[in-house]
């Protein structure tokens, strides 16, 4: 068994994101290429974003800190601390409305 403090990791990633030119920092906490399930903690400073990209498969975002906005087509979803958002299976983007940390959970198709 492996245990991680997502709160401590969130603090560390926000510090890294503040120093990064693109305002982002991420670390995979479970899974990876050899697993179907992958969980990645992603920190974004206020005003930074992830440009529009294809859906990674079945995925969710859990907001650990801050406030984010997920865009997909003509629809936007705002997420606050504690919110869980199912990512639609289409191209989408993510904006940090304030310093934010999310947990991205992805299940890759077989």
UniProtKB/TrEMBL annotation:
This is LuxR family transcriptional regulator. InterPro entries: RmlC-like_jellyroll, RmlC_Cupin_sf. SUPFAM superfamilies: RmlC-like cupins.
């Amino acid at each position: 068994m492996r245990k991680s403090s997502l709160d401590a990791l969130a603090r560390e990633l926000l510090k890294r994101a503040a120093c990064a030119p693109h305002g982002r920092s991420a670390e995979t906490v479970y899974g990876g290429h050899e697993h179907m399930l992958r969980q990645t903690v992603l920190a974004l400073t206020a005003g930074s974003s992830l440009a529009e990209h294809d859906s990674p498969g079945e995925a969710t975002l859990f907001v650990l800190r801050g406030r984010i906005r997920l865009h997909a087509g003509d629809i936007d979803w705002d997420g606050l601390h504690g919110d869980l958002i199912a990512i639609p299976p289409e191209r989408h983007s993510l904006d940090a409305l304030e310093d934010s940390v999310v947990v991205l959970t992805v299940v890759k198709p077989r």
